[in-house]
């Protein structure tokens, strides 16, 4: 089964590029940029990864970004992820990035997006892995800041396929960003938002992303299973759900394999993703293997999960067919 999983051509639709920062690269960049890390070795850094819920994870994730300073740093970060993904037979990926996590530290939007873009182009040419970029807004920051960043992105619209919403969901409902997402849609961008697992008001948030924001996909969205109405809504809109098993294991102490099976049984378009693979120590193959082992998923079920991913990509229809 492991060889079957490793050999499958895969698409990954939920991965934060800043969440692919491996400890070794972190140390190399800290040295180059004269930044002092509070750990002596990459192993000591990994040992300090102590997360048990979303806020405790986010704290470590944002602290990790401090080593990313110039365009080359963003290039290297993105190249390393794309190289790793290609080595796991990921043939197509949609990458999130968090510009506010960088502009708030004095790193320019242009530096961030240009470094990422150059690596995407090089990886497609040299490794054959195709990718598109999704700009995420940090929901714990203001709607005004999100709007400023959307406007900042206007000269780079050709480099973006969509916008997303991530970070701490507590007291930051989707409707807070209604105007930002409305404008992004008018500019031709696709829309997605995180509805993390077991968050306060999660069912209301899932309803808002569908009925008020009009998203094209939902990140996580696992709690929708608690409501027949939401499941029907998700199915009728043909919305993909980007589920992240190993991430869920850390954040809510469950791989959510039962929930993923229920989604498949209901004909919902569940997909499997890594979220923040360097922090959760699991890329696509490791996520699929862990899920398969816990839930005893069949080859057919794994094929359905991967076909779902290609179905709900934001590729042009004709391009999608190449993979399906
Ligand atoms: N940013 C990076 N990973 C995230 C996650 N799993 N949920 C919310 N925001 C994130
Ligand atoms: Zn995420």
Automatic annotation (TrEMBL):
InterPro entries referenced in this protein's UniProt entry, alphabetically: A_deaminase_dom, ADE, Ado/ade_deaminase, Metal_Hydrolase
Residue span, Adenosine deaminase domain: 9-324
GO biological process terms held by the UniProt record: adenine catabolic process; hypoxanthine salvage; nucleotide metabolic process
Marked site (Important for catalytic activity) residue numbers: 220
GO function term, MF aspect, one: adenine deaminase activity
Assigned EC number: 3.5.4.2
One Pfam family named in its UniProt record: A_deaminase
Root EC class: hydrolase
Binding of substrate, residues: 276
Binding positions (Zn(2+)): 14, 16, 194, 275
CDD domains (UniProt xref): ADA (cd01320)
Cofactor(s) recorded in Swiss-Prot or TrEMBL: Zn(2+)
GO cellular component: cytosol
Annotated catalysed reactions: adenine + H2O + H(+) = hypoxanthine + NH4(+)
Biological function: Catalyzes the hydrolytic deamination of adenine to hypoxanthine. Plays an important role in the purine salvage pathway and in nitrogen catabolism.
HAMAP family registered for this protein in UniProt: Adenine_deaminase
PANTHER family the record matches: ADENINE DEAMINASE, ADENOSINE DEAMINASE DOMAIN-CONTAINING PROTEIN
Family per record: Belongs to the metallo-dependent hydrolases superfamily. Adenosine and AMP deaminases family. Adenine deaminase type 2 subfamily.
Name of the protein in question: Adenine deaminase
Organism: Alteromonas alba
Lineage: Bacteria, Pseudomonadati, Pseudomonadota, Gammaproteobacteria, Alteromonadales
Name of the gene this protein is made from: add
């Amino acid at each position: 089964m492991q060889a079957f999983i490793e050999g499958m051509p895969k698409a990954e639709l939920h991965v934060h590029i800043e969440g692919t920062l491996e400890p070794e690269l972190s140390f190399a960049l800290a040295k180059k940029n004269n930044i002092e890390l509070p750990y002596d070795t990459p192993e000591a850094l990994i040992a300090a990864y102590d997360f048990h819920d979303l806020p405790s994870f986010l704290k470590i994730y944002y602290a990790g970004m401090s080593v990313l300073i110039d365009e080359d740093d963003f290039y290297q970060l993105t190249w390393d992820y794309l190289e790793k993904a290609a080595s796991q037979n990921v043939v197509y990926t949609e990458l999130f990035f968090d510009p506010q996590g960088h502009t708030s530290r004095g790193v320019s939007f242009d530096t961030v997006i240009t470094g990422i873009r150059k690596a995407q182009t090089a990886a497609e040419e040299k490794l054959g892995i195709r990718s598109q970029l999704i700009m995420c807004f940090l929901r714990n920051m203001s709607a005004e800041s999100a709007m400023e960043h959307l406007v900042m992105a206007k000269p780079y619209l050709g480099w973006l396929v969509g916008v997303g919403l991530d970070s701490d969901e507590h007291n930051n409902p989707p409707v807070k960003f209604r105007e930002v997402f409305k404008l992004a849609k008018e500019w031709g961008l696709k829309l997605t938002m995180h509805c993390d697992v077991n968050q306060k008001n999660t069912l209301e948030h899932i309803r808002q992303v569908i009925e008020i924001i009009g998203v094209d996909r939902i990140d996580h969205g696992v709690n929708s299973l608690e409501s027949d109405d939401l499941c029907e809504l998700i199915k009728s809109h043909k919305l993909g759900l980007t589920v992240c098993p190993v991430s869920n294991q850390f954040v809510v102490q469950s791989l959510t394999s039962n929930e993923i099976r229920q989604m498949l049984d209901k004909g919902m378009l569940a997909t499997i993703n890594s979220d923040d693979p360097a922090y959760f120590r699991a890329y696509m193959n490791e996520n699929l293997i862990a899920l398969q082992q816990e839930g005893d998923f069949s080859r057919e079920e794994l094929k359905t999960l991967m076909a779902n991913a290609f179905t709900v990509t934001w590729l042009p229809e004709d391009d999608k067919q190449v993979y399906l």
